[in-house]
Structure formats: structure tokens, C-alpha cells
Amino acid sequence: MNLESAPQGVVAGSIPLFAGHPARELLPIDGLRRVMSAAWEGSDAARMLNYGDEQGNRQLIEFLAARLRRRERLDISRDNLMIIGGSTGGVGMLTQHLTVPGDVVLVDAPSYRDALHIFRDHQLELRAAPIDDEGIVIDELERILQQLAASGVAPRFYYVVPNFQNPTGITLSRERREAVIALSRAYGFAIIEDDVYSDIRFGGALPASFFALARGQNVFRLGSFSKTLAPGLRVGWLVAEARRIAGFVGSGMLRMGGGANPFSAAVVADYCGSGAWEAHVEWLRGQYQKRRDLALAALKASMPAGVTWTRPQGGYFIWLRLPSSVHADELEARAQEGNVYFASGKGFYIHPAAGAHHLRLSFSYVPLPDLQAGIDALGRLIAQLMA
Amino acid sequence: MNLESAPQGVVAGSIPLFAGHPARELLPIDGLRRVMSAAWEGSDAARMLNYGDEQGNRQLIEFLAARLRRRERLDISRDNLMIIGGSTGGVGMLTQHLTVPGDVVLVDAPSYRDALHIFRDHQLELRAAPIDDEGIVIDELERILQQLAASGVAPRFYYVVPNFQNPTGITLSRERREAVIALSRAYGFAIIEDDVYSDIRFGGALPASFFALARGQNVFRLGSFSKTLAPGLRVGWLVAEARRIAGFVGSGMLRMGGGANPFSAAVVADYCGSGAWEAHVEWLRGQYQKRRDLALAALKASMPAGVTWTRPQGGYFIWLRLPSSVHADELEARAQEGNVYFASGKGFYIHPAAGAHHLRLSFSYVPLPDLQAGIDALGRLIAQLMA
Fold first, then answer.
1. Residues of A in contact with B116 (CB under 8 A)
2. Cβ-contact B238, B84 below 8 angstroms
3. Cα A117 to chain centroid, rounded
């Protein structure tokens, strides 16, 4: 069972702190219902139920392009965008298009687990550089690149969740982004930025995207409505150079036979077009911030000395480091006895042992009292294991 | 532009006889609206908007498994099924999973154009055997297999639309299916049966599926709600051996991050669960049969001697063969001047020249008077070109 995507599979009454889902009350059910009712009454129903363009819903593409022009002053048009069936599907699509088995790709240590899974199943060779509070450590990345170059190997791309990373919540600094771009040009690799959390931002500005800093060159930027609207709609987008988008749209390899989810995408387009999405995102930020605040306060109150954790400024996740005397596996076994579940650190590393003393907590999904109770329970168990 | 999937891209007032879409009036808009309203009112809205299982909507899987057990006496359980985002996406998924660049796959001549496109973009080597009124010619297939074997090459799979094939409307006979299965065992290739038209059947029984005849062994059977409900929902299914389904569900390569279209799939599950789908399919059969009858009558009345065509017992398409003096390209250019569009035969063959005198007409999409007028116009133009 894929726990990440199926919290309903967990024992009833449990506290699934692993679940990177939006909580039920954060889904705009009424707003989506209104939009959909209007669509059924209008003339659009037949169109949204039929095949669409391979590039995806045009109204939604125009909306997203205008939003990026307005908010980030990006020089892009609808030719730089396509609609996809969610960003994880987008990672698979890009991997399929950009690599052949045996190719090398670069990732963070730790990195998004499902992406590692996708890369492994494409029989890619993974190289990971560690991250610190500003994201990937450039010297380590460069050392890997030099080693590869010495063997005549050019990596195909660097995959990163640049903002409020899954699993750590860390945001890659602007300086590091620019350094990565310089390396990408020197060594000839592409950059896939999986930017699904940037709208869940609790304050401050984010660094410019790779796509903005590199003026689009050899950058593939993924976005999604899964975190800010509803995952079940399976609607995301890809921003890339126009020639790349045209290539994808015309490619049989990526062809979905009528575009990504015409029906869901039409609903999302109408929801966005009404202005409801921006208002919902604004509201969501406050809701997730409240959850983050509660989680951080609970950690501070309940964790014994020696446990450290990240303080994310957005997104869904907090990353804990346990003292070297406490193994995440052991903690996991104990926690499950008390019906508390978290994502053990191992799965986020190429070399699982690197995550033996780490764990990821999600503050996005469980009810607030459970968030408090779950973290309290973990604090007690860690203290017991340290004793 | 992808004409196949974007008839809205064609000049207003045109007659798009290429369009393999359901006509607007054949989409059950009211029924889907009722189901969706009920879902919004019930407790399911939050679940259908969140991440789902990687295998797909459980209710829909159970419904489809029960239907196959009941109608085809297949010995299958929910472990043999997964929900996918439409059958063309399923072809891509299977291709990705079963092949590496350079592998050989077997197809019909002619074959479904988008599938050829997918296989080419995966850098596969295509080998095609011709079809006659009973489908693939076994001797020709065997000759290809012997040639490949002599070079030490084992093809990975045979791809076929077994029922009411796209583009010809031809159904592969039971005898030939059994012969293909025998060859697949002798030469070690899998069978992908892309079975999206079997429910659009105008009379008579269909031969048992490859999946049934081979007892599932090494067969991948794709189905879809695109032809019998609404393409825009992007919901299809895959039937395969349980170990294969488990492999796909657990595979990062195919992972979509929460299952195929939880929202649309939940709507489809409710629609099917209410009994509405079976009733709709029954009604659709009559509607498409009326369209097929009109098209065949129009062809009989307007085509000059020397033009021949298939008489499909189901599906969407009729396949025309022009006299050797008339080129489909020339006809296409003339027809477009009169705003009549069809799918030229070339795109359905590995070697385009093989389709120089063929064309595909779809009777699924255009209004009935346009179907008549379009075929009449083609008849006149062909007569002119023959003169």
C-alpha cells in the first residue's frame, strides 16, 4: 500500500502524520459545486465532456500565463504552458522524454520520495548532493559533476522541489539557484523544478524561480492545483520553452488522447476565472500557517533536547532529526503501537541508511487536536528511547 | 494541430468526418449532472476531491470486475483491474513498461494512428502484418515472426484494436485470435488488446477477448468510458494478470500520485452504480447504428463503381478504398475546398504509401444531415477525379 497517497488505508482512529494530503475542511467543496452547477447549466457541458486539445484547456492556460506574467513578470505566453494530469505525472512525463535507461540524474539528499521511485523505475542512475538550510550544497553538487565529467558522463537533469521542499520544508536560496543554473550551463543538464508548494507561503517573498532566473532556458517548471484546490481533480501544469511545449504536445509519447483531463480542467478553469481560486489560496495560507504554528509549538513543548527540526515558511512538512541514539525505525514501531504514523526518513534518500535518524511530519492533513496529540506522543516515545 | 482530438479547431461550418468523437447529443449530460449533484450533497465530495488509491477508484474496479464476470464469465477479481486515465494513456503506460528503445512491436496494417505515434516516439521498431475482413492475416504475421526469430529478435508485444478496429471497423475473428495466442506463446510476445469499441455493437456476438481466450496469460486488455460515456472524463481501465496489476500499481514509472483521476472516476463509479451506464450504452447502440446505416446508405447511393468500403457491425469508423487512379491526397485537397474533412489513409500505416488510396470516415460525430452531405460530396469529387 502506498501510504503517502492512501491515508484511508490506515487503521481508523489513527493519527497519520505521514499524510501529505489537504485536510477535508481545506477542500473548497461548495465553491467547486457552484462552478460545476453553472457549467452544467451553460453551454460548456458538452465541450468539457468531449475530447480537448492536447495542450490542455485553453482558458486555464491563458489564466496561468497571465498570472505568471502579472505576479512574476515572466515574459511568457500560452505557448509556454501545457496542462498535465498532476505534477507527479509530469515528473514521469519529463523523465520519459528526457532520459533513457542508464542515464544519470541529480537529486537532493533527501528528496521527494515518489520522484526517486519514478527515476529508479526508469532505470536511471541517481546522484544526490546533501542539502542544508539553503538547499543543495553547491560544492557537493560540483564535486559530483566533476566526478561524472571525469568519467565522460553528462547528467540529464537536476530534479528539485525548490520551495518548501518535500520532505524538509527547506527553500533553496536565490544564490544557490543561480549557482545551479551556472553549473547546468557548464555541464549541460536541464533543471526540473517541481514547484507545487509555492502558493502555500506563510510570509516573506520567495526567490525567483529557476525558470525566471534562467529565462526559461532548459528549465521545466511544474505546478499543480493539488495543494491549493483539490488533489482529486488531477490538474497541474508545465511551464517550459515554447519549442519544448510544442514538442510535448505533438509527441505520441506524451499523448493522452485528447489532453489532460478536459472535464476537471474545465472546472478548474471556471473556478480560477471567477476569482475564487486566489481568494481560496489566501485563506488556505492562514489555515496552513495555523497548522504549522501549532506543530512547531507542540514540537518545542514536547521534544527532548537533542531533537532538532526545520521551521518551514510554507508548504506541508517539517523534518526532524533524532539524536544518534534513536533510530527512526524503532520510533516508528513504537509509534504505530499507539496508532501514530509518520514518514520515516529512509525513503527520501538514495541510500536509506542516511535517513536512519530522520522523519517527516505533515501538518496538512490531521485535525489540529490530533496534530498536537501525535507530536506529544512522539516526544514521549523519543524521550523513552533516549533513556 | 491534432485534428483527431480537436474538431473545434476546424473551420466553422465544416464537415469533420475525421472526428472520432461522440456527437454532442450522445453525451449523457443530464445523467452525469444528476450523479454529480448527488455526490456533492453526500459525504463523498471530500473523498473524491482528495488523493485516491494508486489502483484507482475501488467502487468502479468492483463494478467492472463484476460486469466482466457476469457478461464474459471471466474468472477475475478486483486484483485484475486498475483504473487508468483513458486507454490511449494506457497504451503509453504499457509501452513504457514493456519496452526499451529499439525493441520490436507488431501491429496491424492499417492500425490506430495514435498508437503508432506512441510506439515511434518510444523509438520502437514497428512490424506490420496486413489485415483482411477477419483481421490480421496469420500467415503474414508468422512470416514476420520467423524473419525476426532468424535474426534473434523477439518482439515485445502485438498491439491490436480487436473489435470494430480503428480505422477499418473490422473485427478480428475468434479463429485468428486463437492463432495469435498460439504464436504469442511460441514466440514469447505479449498481446495488448485496446478494446474501446466493443460496447458499441450493432448486433451479433463478438468473439471472446484475447484475455478470455488466453486465460489472461500475457494479455493486457484496455477499456474506456470515452466512447460509451464521455471522453472528457478521461477514465479507462486495464485488465491483466494480478501480478501485473500489482506491479503497475507499485511502480514509480506508472505512478500518478494518487491514482487515475479520483474525481472523474468517482463520478463514473456512481453513474455506473446507479444502472444508468448500461441503459445509456443500450441507447447509444441504437444511435450509432442509425448513424452507421445512414452512412452506408449514403455511400451506396453516392460512390462511383470502383470504390469499396467496410460494413462495420459496431464502433465509429468506415474504411474506404479508392480506385487506383484516385489518390487520397488529391481527394483530401479537393474536399477541403468544400469544407469536408476526412482522415487520409496514410497516417494509419507504418509505410504511408500503403494508405495512398484509403480513407477513414467517422460516423460518430457530425450531425446526420452533414454525414449525408459530406459523403455525397466525397462521392461527387471521387467521380470527378476518376473522370
1. 252
2. yes
3. 14
User: What is the grid cell recorded at A346?
Assistant: 529512509
Q: How far apart are alpha carbons A153 and A102 in whole angstroms? A: 11
Comparing CA positions, the residue from B48, B83, B81, B87 lying closest to residue B66 is B81
Evaluate whether A228 touches A287 at the Cβ level (below 8 Å). no
- Residue B101 preceded by cis peptide, ω within 30: no
Whether A51 sits inside 8 A of B120 (CB atoms) is no
State how far the Cα of A213 lies from the Cα of A189, in Å rounded to an integer. Answer: 16
| Total-model pTM | 0.92
> Given the DSSP bridges, would you call strands B236-239 and B81-84 parallel, antiparallel or unpaired?
antiparallel
In angstroms, the CA B101 to CA B143 distance is: 23
Q: What confidence score (pLDDT) does residue A44 get?
A: 79
From CA A311, how far away is CA A211, in angstroms rounded? 26
What's the Rg (C-alpha) of chain B? Answer: 21
Contacts with B260 from chain A: Cβ below 8 Å: 234
* Placement of cell 456533492 in the chain: B40
Query: Does A4 score more than 70 pLDDT?
Result: no
Question: Any CB–CB contact under 8 A between B118 and chain A?
Answer: yes
Tell the residue number behind the cell numbers 476518376, with chain if given. B386
pLDDT over 50 (residue A1): no
Query: Would you state the pLDDT for residue A164?
Result: 98
User: CB contact, 8 Å: A345 with chain B?
Assistant: no
Confirm if B162 and B178 have CB atoms less than 8 A apart: no
CA neighbor of B195 nearest in space, from B237, B246, B242, B141: B237
pLDDT in tens, B205-229: 999 999 999 999 999 999 999 999 9
3-state SS string for A284-299: HHHHHHHHHHHHHHHH
pLDDT value at B109 more than 70: yes
Q: Contact at 8 Å (CB) between A69 and A43?
A: no
Judged by CB atoms closer than 8 Å, whether chains meet at B49 and A231 is answered as: yes
User: Which amino acid is present at B294?
Assistant: L
Weakest-pLDDT range from A154-158, A306-310, B44-48, B167-171: B44-48
Which chain B residues contact residue A54 at CB under 8 A? 2, 5-6
CA dihedral for A287, A293, A296, A301, sign (positive or negative): negative
Residue A255: CB atoms within 10 Å = 24
Cell of B120: 515511434
Instruction: Give buried/exposed letters for A277-298 (b at 16+ CB in 10 A, else e).
Output: beebeeebbeebbebbebbbeb
> What does the pLDDT look like over B31-41, one tens digit per residue?
999 998 888 88
Q: Which residues does chain B have within 8 Å of residue A26's beta carbon, measured at their own beta carbons? A: none
- Which value does ipTM take for this structure? 0.88
Pairwise CB contact (< 8 Å): B88 & A255:
yes
Of the candidates A86, A259, A261, the beta carbon closest to that of B257 is on A86
pLDDT per position as a tens digit, A268-293: 999 999 999 999 999 999 999 999 99
In this predicted structure, which of A10-14, A30-34, A205-209, B236-240 has the lowest mean pLDDT? A10-14
